[in-house]
Structure formats: C-alpha cells, structure tokens
Amino acid sequence: MIVAAYLLRRLLYAIPILIGVNLITFALFFFVNSPDDMARMQLGQKRVTPEAIQRWKQERGYDKPMLFNAGAKCERPLLGWSALPKLCQEKLTDTIFFEKSASMFWFDFGVAEIDGRDIAREIKLRMGPSLAVTIPVFLIGLLTFITFALILAFFRATYVDFVGVVLCVTAMSISFLFYIIGGQWLISKLWHLVPISGFGYGFDAWRFVVLPVAIAVLGGVGASTRLYRTLFLEEIGKDYVRTARAKGLTDTRVLFRHVLHNGLIPVLTNVVVAIPMLFIGSLVLESFFGIPGLGSYTIEAIRSQDFSVVRAMVFLGAVLYIVGLMLTDISYTLADPRVRLQ
Amino acid sequence: MPFKPIILWTDALVFVLVAVVVASGWYIRRQEHLLAPWRKVVRSRYGMCALVILSVFVAIGLLDSFHYRPRLDARPGEGKTSYAVEVRSAFDALVEPLGRRFEKTYSAPFAAYSYAKETVERPDGTQAREFPRLKFGGAHLQDPAQELVPDVVRRTLGAVGLAAVLWIVLTMLVAAWLAWARHADFSATLSAIIHGETEVPWRAVLLTAGLVLAVAVPLALLSAQYHVLGTDKVGQDVFYEALKSVRTGLVIGTLTTLVMLPLALLLGVMAGYFGGWVDDVIQYVYTTLNAIPGVLLIAAAMLITQAWIDLHPNIFETVSQRADLRLLFLCLILGITSWTGLCRLLRGEALKLRELEYVEAARAFGVSNWRILTRHLAPNVMHIVLITVVMEFSGLVLAEAVLSYVGVGVDPSMISFGTMINSARLELAREPMVWWSLAAAFVFMFLLVLSANLFSDSVRDAFDPRIRSAMSARLRRLWARPV
Fold first, then answer.
1. What is the pTM of this model?
2. What ipTM does this complex have?
3. Within a domain: residue A330?
C-alpha cells in the first residue's frame, strides 16, 4: 500500500520533468533553427525554391504554426466548454508543438524525416538486437567487476593489490575506441574467430554478440573495479568486521559473507538506474559492429541529420532514465530496511 | 605588422583560465591553511611525475593557443595589406616546416619511399610501377637503401646525447636552486636528491624529466628530416597532427568544467543554503537536464549548432574561426551535461555547512545572505570544485574522441584525437595495413589521460574530504552513460 502510494507520487513528480524535457527538445529543435532552415538543410544549401521548401514542410507537417493556430477551424470546444467559442481544441492541437513534441507523451513518435518510416515500429524492431548486447554486458560486467574488486580487497596492501590498481588505472586511461578497434583487428581480422560485424537473429546471434560484449566488459573493467574496491575497503574498515574477526571468524568468511553483503548494497542500488537504459543500446559498439539496434539507429539519424528520430530518442531516453530513478528509490528500501518510503 | 594576431574564443577563455590559475596560486602562497593540502600534492611521487608529463602537454597547448594570420606578400599596385586566410599558431611557427610538409599519401614512419606504388617515368622514357621517393621524408639521403638506417641511428644517438646533456644541466640547476633556497651546501643538496631524501620527490621528478627529454629530443630533432610517425592519407605528418591534437584535448578537458563552474557553484550553494522553493526549482532544473541521456543531448545540440553554423556562413572570416566556435559550443554543451553532478554535490555540502555555528553567527550579526554565500560558504566548498574539475578532465578528453567518432564532436577540419581516430579507423582493414595514425593518436591520448588520472588521484588524496555522495554519483555515472 505504502509502496503503491509512493510510486504514484514519484510518477506524478516525473510528469513535470518529462514536460521540461519535452520543452527543452522542442526549443532546441524548432526555435534555434526554424522549419524553413531545416528544409533548406535537407534539400541542399543553394538554389532551393520557396515552393520546394513549402512542399517539404507540407509533406512533413511543418507548415503549421509553432504553438497556437489562430486560423484553425473550430469543431471541438476546449475542455468541453462551449462558453468559449474562440478557444477550441484545434487551435492548440493543430500546431507543430502538439503534433511533433507533445504527442511523444503517448508514444506517438511520427515518421522519420528522411525515409518516412514509422519511428515507433523501428524502435520496437530494434530493441531486441540492442538488448542482446546490453543485457550480457550488464550481467557479465557486474559479476566480473565485483569479483575482481573482491580479489583486490582480499589481497589488500600486498603486491597483488598494487599491481591490480596499477592495471586498473592503466586500463581506464585507454580510450574505449582502442579496445574496439584493437579487438576487431586481433580477434576478427587476424584470428578469424568471429565475424567482424553484422547480426543474426535467433540462436545464431551469439557469434556476433560475443566480441562486443567482451570488449564492453574489458573497457569498463578499470574504472569499475577500482571504485568497487574502494567501496569494499571502506566496508572492511568498519567496526562489525573487527568484531567478526575478534570472534574468530576467518578472513575469507568475513569477506565473502559480511563484507560482500554490505558492500553490495551501494553497488546494486546505484546500478539499478542503468537497467532501463539497456533498451537504448550502445551507440559506439553497435555502430562499429553493425548491430541493427537502437544505438546504430540513433547514430544513423545523427549522421543523416534526421531530427525527428533524434528527438524521439532523446524523449525515450528521458523516460527510461526516470523509470531508472524510481527503481533506484525502490531498491534502496528493499536493500536497507532503515530507509523508509515517505 | 608581418602578422595579424587573432584571438579565438577558446584562446580568450584559455588565457582567462591561466590568469585565474596564476592569481589563485599567488593568493594560496600567502595562506598557510590553503597551502597545506598542496604541500601534500607536491610530496606525492606519482602526482609529481604525472605533473611533469602534463606540463609538457600544457606547454604545447598554450603555445598552440596564440593564433595569428601571416601577412601575404603585397602585390604591386595594391595599396592595402592582406592577410592569409589560414590561421596559424605560435606552435606552428616554432615547428615551422613540420605542418607544411605534405607528401602525396601514406608513408611509414622513417620511410624514404611512399607506401603505395605509383607509375613513374624513368629517365630513359619508359614507365614503371614502383615506390616513389618522398618529397620530404629522408630527402637528404642519396641512397636510402644503404644510408637510411645508419643515418637514423647516428641522429638518434646524437639526440640522446644532447638530451643527456640537457638533463644533467637541468639537474644541476635544480640542485643549485634548492641549495640557494635553503642556504645549504650544493653537494649535500645534490646527494640528497640522488638518494631520494628530499621532501619533494625531486629524484622521481628528475628521472621523469630525463625520460621525457630522452624521448622528446630525438623525436623533435629527427622530425626535421623524417616523418617520425609516418604520414596519413592526405600526406600530413602524423607527429604534427598528434601534437596539434593536444590543444583540442586540453581545451575540452578544462574549459568544459570552467564555463559551467560559476553557474554550478552559485546554484548548488544557493539550493543548499536557502532550501524551500529555491531548492525545489534548482533541483527540478538539474533533474530535468540530467534526465536527458548525455550523448543524445550533446548529439542533438551539436546537430542544431552545426545547422546554425552552416546557415550563417558569412559571420566567419576563416575556417579556423568556424571550427573554434563549434569547439566552444561543444565545451558548453558538455558542460551542461556534466554540470549537474557538481551542482548536486555542492548542494549537499551547503546543506551541511549552513547548520554550522559560524554561519549561524554570521546570520545573527545581520550579515546579508549574499555575503554569507560568497564569504562563508563558497570558500568552504572550493575543495569539492577543485576535485571535480581535476577528476572530470580525463573523462572529457576520452569523451571527445568518442563524440568526434559519432560525428557530434569537434569540426572535421580541426585536428583532434577524435578526428585522427575517425579518419584512420578503416586503415587497419586496409592491405597493407596502416597502423601509425591510430597508434600515434592512442599513445598520445593514453599518456595525457594517464598522467591526468595519476595527478587527479594525488589531488583527491590530498584534499580528501571523503565525499560519500561523490562516490555514488560516480557509480551512477559509470553505468548510466549509454556509450
């Protein structure tokens, strides 16, 4: 009951944030450059006739007023009030803002400007390949980082720890692009173990997914391991650990039962925010490995300057982030009973 | 004047940054309580070694920030002088022919011949396909097949010798300066340095400096005769490109946090101090900005910026000015996405500070809110600001490369690590393979980021305020970035 009420409040809190995101994207996409400018961009800079611009705008529904359509034909009164004949729904809905921006609230993303495909359908189609990469990266990554961090914490203040930290700092100083380009060159081109890029549906997908997953985990191992190690070491310094050791428990047992349990709380509650974002996919990985997911969709849209797709992805990303924040709050209470939902 | 000085937007901001650093250094020198953590930084071995390498990069970047347009030779009969459209920097002038020695296309490091076969005309009139000689690389050699290796070895040995002499002079200078400053015996000081007994780790610093000299001097001297790191597809010297990329990386790493710093500081401290509706509004603003995935916000904003720049081509006199404006916008937008974390941290700290007695006392004396904010709260959160600025740096340098690859980074005409990698990413798949552009970009970027990481670690350790929330913010960011 409390959780339900809390969730409802968080949901209500999310609405102004989403409205804010919507307004920011609207201002960014329609006020900095007017639809005329965009038409000129898409049709080529020089020698564009006003008619061509008008046609381009008409085909895509950009020929309407931005926020308020004074000349719209009135059929439905606003909010059911027939007392205000001058204000009607059409004056607000028959505008660019309503059709292109506000409509995203009910997940009506419209069609892509370049190829005219339905964006919502594309998103549905491309979610699978994205998840095929991001879910394994998330799970395997979490497991690897925690394991490595525990090992370093176990061997704290020894050469193993020192070398481990040096390796971590080195690994986090290397560009992610290096891991990708180097990995593709070594594994695919030199050793021919897996295809360089592409994607297959069904069980066949593993051949295409295994290298990007391995590279993504490798790319994150330095920074994450080092951070988790610090968290575990902080936990090891606490009083209950000393008590447990004083009671005669072995170092291993203390580390794997007490420290691991308590140290995992901050780790898990903080990675929860990333779970909804897995749907978005990874921009760089997908474009390098030719995986037809949402990440490569976004990159293609950026490269071909398809503003409608980028707009949709920005809004989708914001929605997923807010879902992530809510999951985080819930996970806090689940992990630590002292935190109460108010 | 033989040239017309040009101050690009980012140059101006770089100069402001340098002025701020120098001024705060001057101020901190006289304040013992502010000096104490810096003494700790100065004593850390890794931090100081990293600082040596960083200062080399910073020197290159600063030299590269003085821009000018050389005067063109006036044509007879033309009264007014005109200046070249190409904007050059003091760094270009210093390494003079390096940036202008274009080959036709790829050539390997230390090569005298091109990397691709070409149809050339023999003196006897017949045509043959062979590797042509390079225009500049090894051009002083009569017979490269015989002379190349001995020549390179000879020059390298000479350069290393020169580096050794320079290094010994440097060591003597440091020892003499230390001896003079402490009124100590010169030989005693020198032996203290050699045995690593000085408080500041001079031995480690000098060893690092020696290593830097041993690499940099040969590279610099040999680059006059050879393309030490080869040339890229359009024949540009890769060593030159890598050096030019340093400024772009530094600008993005520093200016990004700098441009949003005043706003983050003001809003964060205000939110924590005032609470109530001020807090609500500021929290709403940064949660909303945070909700948009960073890469997508940057992509959207850069697309818009680029469209705006393309539609207004007349306001820029040169290509560099256009590219520079885009770099500035990139810094601004990256700043907007990274500003929220700092703001949240500062809000938390201000929440704590406003309950302290000295703030309460100030309020009881009737000190105005604005004065409490600026005199009492802001100075006491500065360590958080400093740590954030230093820690963000390496991440931003790495982010630039990824963003340029995605196509929303710096202007394609601006040399940066990202554009280098982006234009070279298919070269490994080429037959025969071209590896030197990628290798140079990655190695230079690695050195810059590694030294920045080590330095920021020692700064954080010295100022260690044990910010728990900073840790969890970093945790969250590690996972929440969609790269």
1. 0.90
2. 0.88
3. yes
